[in-house]
Amino acid sequence: MDAPTARDMLVLIMLGGLLGAFGQGLRVVVGLKKVYDQAHVDGADFASLFDTSKLVVSLFIGFLAGGIAILFMDKPVMGNGLYTTLIGAGYAGADFIEGFVQKALPTAAGAAAGAPAGRHPNNDAI
After folding, report:
1. Which end of the chain has fewer CB within 10 Å, C or N?
2. 2 near 49, Cβ under 8 Å?
3. Which H/E stretch holds residue 79?
4. For position 1, what pLDDT does the model report?
5. Is 81 among the domain residues?
6. Rounded to an integer, what distance in angstroms lies between the CA atom of residue 65 and that of residue 21?
7. Residues of the chain with pLDDT under 70
8. Domain range enclosing 89
9. 23 in Cβ contact with 90 (< 8 Å)
């Protein structure tokens, strides 16, 4: 069999990325529910706790996780198994990447104070 062309690789990366973003979207739904519940408990407005930029970055990280996952597969075969694997890679991989980034890269406030970056209790999915 011939080596994959650049077009073939781009299509695979896009497929992996889109399915990874979809998997991350599943995590986002859970996170949005937690934020909504927290807003209700605190008597706050949901919009005041929701951060659109975190949502976009989170979906992009899911895209990266899915794209990276498909690159490491040996001869991926289209089918339900591949799609489920890539959705799972986006779901779990995004959590891994976000956790790594939060530990490895200090936030501006944490760096100024000399403290390690911490996680907000509602920051697990958005």
Report:
1. N
2. no
3. none
4. 56
5. yes
6. 8
7. 1, 107-126
8. 23-106
9. yes
Number of structural domains in the chain? 1
Distance of alpha carbon 104 from alpha carbon 92, whole angstroms: 18
Question: How confident is the model at residue 24, as a pLDDT?
Answer: 93
What is the torsional sign of CA 89, 30, 47, 50?
Answer: negative
Q: Measure the CA–CA gap between 103 and 117, rounded to whole angstroms.
A: 6
Please list, in sequence order, all residues whose beta carbon lies within 8 angstroms of the beta carbon of residue 126, skipping any fewer than 6 positions away: 28, 31, 32, 35, 50, 51, 54, 55, 58
pTM: 0.73
Q: Please report the pLDDT score of residue 109 as a whole number.
A: 57
**Is residue 28 assigned to a domain?**
yes
Amino acid 22 reads F
**Alpha-carbon span 84 to 124, nearest angstrom:** 22
Residue 17 maps to a domain: no
Distance CA 87, CA 91 (A): 6
Q: Let me know if residue 39 belongs to a domain.
A: yes
